[in-house]
Design brief:
- By secondary structure, the chain is an alpha/beta fold.
- The protein folds into three domains: about 90 residues, Arc Repressor Mutant, subunit A (Orthogonal Bundle), CATH 1.10.10.10; about 90 residues, 3-Layer(aba) Sandwich (D-Maltodextrin-Binding Protein, domain 2); about 110 residues, D-Maltodextrin-Binding Protein, domain 2 (3-Layer(aba) Sandwich).
- About 40% of the residues lie in helices and about 25% in strands.
- The chain is built from ten helices and 14 strands.
- Strand 1 and strand 2 form a beta hairpin.
- Helix 1 packs across helix 2, helix 1 packs across helix 3 and helix 2 crosses helix 3.
- The two termini are about 35 Å apart.
- The N terminus is likely disordered.
């Protein structure tokens, strides 16, 4: 995006373009921006003329992004996020957080990482009440009325959401001592093919395992997959119950590795990381309670 594009008029045109894309029509997009249908159409035409390319394919039945439109949309979302952050700091409500904060988080991650932050947040801001949903199912934030979600490994399920990376969480390959005592302990990635792999699966999506070999190449691990679960906490429990090998975020299994109930497998191999993210709906001025909580959990997980 060029410097010339970032004057006040051009920013409004980009925001109008985002609204049209995300609502799927000129009518809904213009309404969300407080414009007439004609004004929104003219704003898009000016933006296309400035960029020198067509951004949207228009038919009588649908709108679709061109290749250039997809690139500008991605940059526009980043621009909007920056404007939201600046606006929240300087022209937001300016007051202390108050009211109900609705948070969605995965079960195991929420208990171990998010709940301690909620405790400190409630102690710091006595006018706030928190309603927290702990589930590994990725739901629609807007329709559920959630203020924000903490997710692991799910980046922008909805392009209208603002996304902030909180931490890169190491993944750990592990199993119980009892399971390992009745089988060969893997010393190479290909040895996992002889083992029962406990796989995370949800909404027709299955976890894939990638490990880095000694020569630096990433290889896909395969094995028997007789048990698939949609919960990180359930996968941990299955591993503790001697049911197989699990690949889980370090924070979920850290205490069990320390007490010896789980043991690392192939500790010399890099098993990668997974992103922990904060997702929240786009708002022109981010509410104080959301902004303060996101800042607090980002600082906490960065340690």
């Amino acid at each position: 995006m060029t410097r010339a594009a970032l004057n006040g008029t051009r920013v409004d045109e980009i925001l109008t373009f985002l609204a049209i894309v995300e609502t799927g029509s000129f009518v809904s997009g213009s309404r969300s921006m407080g414009l007439s249908r004609s004004a929104a159409g003219k704003a898009l035409s000016r933006l296309e003329e400035h960029c020198g390319v067509r951004l949207l394919n228009r038919t009588s039945r649908a709108l679709s992004l061109t290749e250039e439109g997809r690139r500008l949309y991605a940059q526009g979302v980043e621009l909007r996020s920056t404007l939201d952050a600046v606006g929240a700091r300087f022209v937001g409500d300016g007051g202390d957080p108050r009211g109900e904060l609705r948070i969605s988080a995965p079960d195991a991650l929420g208990r171990r990482l998010v709940l301690p932050v909620v405790k400190r947040f409630l102690e710091r801001w006595p006018e706030v009440q928190v309603e927290m949903s702990l589930s590994d199912t990725v739901t629609d934030l807007v329709s559920d009325g959630a203020d924000l979600a903490v997710r692991i490994g799910v980046r922008l399920p909805n392009p209208g959401l603002i996304c902030r990376t909180l931490r890169q969480e190491p993944l750990v390959l592990c199993a119980s001592p009892a399971y390992l005592s009745r089988t060969d302990v893997p010393t190479r990635v290909e040895h996992l093919s002889r083992h029962d792999l406990l796989i995370h699966a949800s909404q027709n999506m299955r976890q894939t395992w990638q490990l880095k070999e000694a020569d630096g190449t990433w290889v896909r691990a395969s094995g028997r997959s007789r048990l698939r679960l949609d919960s990180g906490e359930a996968l941990r429990e299955a591993a503790l119950a001697d049911m197989g090998v699990a690949l889980l975020p370090e924070s979920i299994v850290q205490s069990n590795l320390a007490d010896g109930r789980l043991k690392r497998i192939l500790p010399q191999r890099d098993t990668g990381t997974v992103e922990i993210l904060a997702l929240y709906p786009h708002k022109r001025m981010l509410e104080s309670k959301v902004r303060h909580f996101v800042d607090m959990i980002a600082a906490d997980l960065a340690i």
